[in-house]
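step=predict obj=Arginase n=204
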Amino acid sequence: MMSGKSLVLLNRGVSMISRRFNHNVGIIGAPLSRGQGKEGVRMGPDALRKSGLMTALQTGGCNLKDYGNLKFEDEPEDETFRNVKMPRTVGKANEKLSQAVSLIKADGRTCVILGGDHSLAIGSISGNAAFHSNLCVVWVDAHADINTPSTTPSGNLHGQPVSFLIKELKTEIPALPGFSWLEPCLSAKDIVYVGLRDVDPGEK
Ligand SMILES: NC(=[NH2+])NCCC[C@H](N)C(=O)O
């Protein structure tokens, strides 16, 4: 027979499990490659879907809604601006992503974004920040991706997203075409790096 106390514990366990197993998740594909030089990364969202990601998430108890893939286009005459490559295209794509993330959050879902190159962190984090005033970021990556337009050795925006998001670096970021919509939304203390092993001199 069950005591009152064990019944309370059991109920608590079941409600924890059902909370975990009824997690509402929205999937959005972001097939962007212009933040760096390899075309193939835009195939990421479809490749991840084909590899069985959705089934794995459902088996893990997620209640999924697939919002499909965003459509990104190259902006015309997207010249390099102070060494930064394709700023208009990458800025516009991230603006779209940020809006899409905010809509999914407004639907009451955790947003899982399938990229795409790492410049997408700009839209992903800013879209979430619009909903969570106390947002923290755990950045698991070999790269810090905190170059600024002046320190970037490659000019690729996938190596710079964090510098655009951190309030303390605002004065280091020039007014880039394509990014007028963006306001930094994180403090430096709100990000933790895990796994760094390839950091540029200007990022240190
Ligand atoms: N998310 C990445 N794969 N980042 C690579 C960045 C490489 C280099 N640090 C750069 O700024 O260009």
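step=describe
The helical segments are 4-21, 44-50, 53-59, 87-106, 121-129, 161-165.
step=end
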